[in-house]
Amino acid sequence: MMIIKKFVFLIAILTAVAFTTRDSVSKSTSVVITAESSLFVKGTTNVSNFSCVFNINKFKNPIQVTYHLKSDKMVFNKTALILETDCFDCGGKAINSDFQKILKADRYPQIKLYLKEISQIENTLDVHALVNIEIAGITKSYKIPVKVKNNETLRIAGDLRISLSDYNLEAPKKIFGLISVDDKIEIHFQLGVIEK
């Protein structure tokens, strides 16, 4: 259930902002994720589905973005999106508590997404974002296709499937082990981003 981005992805959103500049000098800016954005994690058990929604108002805006161009890629330095695990609402006290336990939130209260680089998908405004996601002290890299819409507010959307076991996470068993959570979870994000 580790959310995380589109996370994303979320972090991927930050990437598209940089496409507005085309020189190779290192650039620095800051962006704000708007209140119309959404980020949630979906999972399944052997009896039902669940969804944990991140409280968008809890983003620590503005987010600093530093990047430079390298060949046909934008390379980012120290560009991170931090998600506080206690800002997810799964729809009830018990499932929220289970979600926190799965993420080992007592020891690791944050999910960290580091934007590493983006590259434009040919003949589109869409990009591939290389993102490092840190959950429970373990970091994994993902290349995420991200859809970008550019109007007054930059809109970034994407999906990512991850495995709990990749982060050495295990869902708690309920009712003598009769209810189990699937290892695969999905992270969905739709982010509005404006330059500060």
Automatic annotation (TrEMBL):
Signal peptide location: 1-18
A Pfam family the protein falls into: YceI
Domain Lipid/polyisoprenoid-binding YceI-like: 65-191
Record bears the keyword ATP-binding: no
InterPro entries hit by this protein: Lipid/polyisoprenoid-bd_YceI (IPR007372), TTHA0802/YceI-like_sf (IPR036761)
UniProtKB keywords: Signal
Name of the protein in its database record: YceI family protein
Organism: Mariniflexile gromovii
